[in-house]
Every structure is written in C-alpha cells, then in structure tokens.
Amino acid sequence: MAKVTIEDGYVPTENEPFMNERQREYFRRKLLGWKNDILREAQDTLVALQSENENHPDLADRASSETDRAIELRARDRQRKLTGKIDAALARLEDGSYGYCEETGEPISLKRLDARPIATLSLEAQERHERRERVYRDD
C-alpha cells in the first residue's frame, strides 16, 4: 500500500469521496496523537504520584491530598478506557468500517468524526440511543 501524504492544515471535506485514503490517514494521525497525549499524561501522573510522598502532619492537608489523588486516579481510569475506544477506532480504520454508523451503516458526518473521532454512531442514531436510554433508565 502506498504511503499517503497529508499536508499541514488538511481537513477532510464533504467535497471528496468519503473515507478516502487522505481522510483515513488524517483520522489515523488524529487518533494516534490523542492516544499519545493520554499516555504521556498518564506517565506524568505516575511520576507525580511516585514523587509525592509527603507526610502531612495536618489531618485536613492529608485529606485534601488524598482527595486530589483519588480524583486524579479516577480521571486516569476514564482516560485508560478512552484508549481502548481509540484502539477500537484504529482497528475500524484498518478493516474499512471506520466512519460508518454501527446502527444504520450510513456514513457518520465528517464534522462529527472530527469532533469525536471515536464515534461509532451517526448523530441521529446517537440521539435515538440517548432517548431510549432516558426512557429505560431507573430514576
């Protein structure tokens, strides 16, 4: 497979064939960049948590520090789950299903994919899904 080059500033448009090589390479780079950012932040958090071995004599300071640590770890756990979704999107790029709604098979808008590159549902299908979720949710 020939390597596709993407010039700086390229943004997919509706005027070109959907999920052509340039668009796939654009989203591949976007997803990999996002994943690398998450992994770098996770590494920074790990280093910070290892170096922060402060002994807070004040109970309030200790509680505040523990709360901050718990919030940071919860955020990292959400990002860990996000990397799984990014990996799944990269796999869909490889198998040719990326950019198509899992529910309808129709193309997901480029605008939506650019804003949420891990999207698996078109905007309309996502809205239907959320409405069903609200109806069946236990309140």
TrEMBL record:
Organism domain of life: Bacteria
NCBIfam families according to UniProt: dksA
Organism the protein comes from: Methylobacterium iners
Subunit structure: Interacts directly with the RNA polymerase.
One Pfam family named in its UniProt record: DksA_N
Zinc fingers classed as dksA C4-type: ranges: 101-125
The keyword Cell inner membrane is annotated on this UniProt entry: no
Chain ranges of the Zinc finger DksA/TraR C4-type domain: 96-131
Localization (cell): Cytoplasm
Annotated family: Belongs to the DksA family.
Primary site of residence: cytoplasm
Keyword Metal-binding among UniProt keywords: yes
DnaK suppressor protein DksA N-terminal domain mapped to chain residues: 23-93
Residues making up the signal peptide according to the UniProt record: none
Name recorded for this polypeptide: RNA polymerase-binding transcription factor DksA
Function: Transcription factor that acts by binding directly to the RNA polymerase (RNAP). Required for negative regulation of rRNA expression and positive regulation of several amino acid biosynthesis promoters.
Alphabetical UniProt keywords: Cytoplasm, Metal-binding, Zinc, Zinc-finger
